[in-house]
Design a protein that fits this description.
This protein has about 130 residues and is an alpha/beta fold. Helices cover about 15% and strands about 35% of the residues.
């Protein structure tokens, strides 16, 4: 059974949100289905979209678990956005949270950093 996920985020000011999410995600939307929505493809069959829905904004809560958390956060910082919260859970999992202009929360989670001694040994040196 194939499943596509579309995670929606209501926004009050579409133009401001569009610019903010382009900075957060590092790319323009994959497509614009109409004048009030913008859609980013995060991975195959996994989409995040904003929709102009005045009065409903500010209540979204999404977390994306990524394998390149530090690199991604550095790139977001380079694009001018600042995280509103950084957490490390007791199991070492990390989460970096951003809030859009309407207060919607988008978090990026990542596995604990791998210490050099935890990495498998290099093989095939020659």
């Amino acid at each position: 059974m194939a499943v596509d996920l579309f995670a929606g985020i209501p926004v009050n000011d579409y133009a401001a949100a569009l610019a903010w999410y382009e900075r957060l995600l590092g790319d323009p939307p994959a497509f614009l289905p109409n004048d009030t929505e913008a859609v980013w493809e995060l991975a195959e069959h996994r989409y995040l979209y904003i929709e102009h829905r005045p009065g409903r904004a500010g209540h979204a809560l999404h977390t994306l678990f990524v394998d390149d958390l530090d690199t991604r956060v550095a790139a977001i910082t380079d694009r001018g956005l600042t995280a509103t919260r950084r957490e490390t859970y007791s199991n070492g999992v990390r989460k970096v949270t951003y809030h859009d202009p309407d207060g919607n929360e988008i978090g990026f989670g990542g596995a604990p950093p791998t210490a050099p001694s935890d990495r498998p040994p290099l093989t095939g040196r020659g």
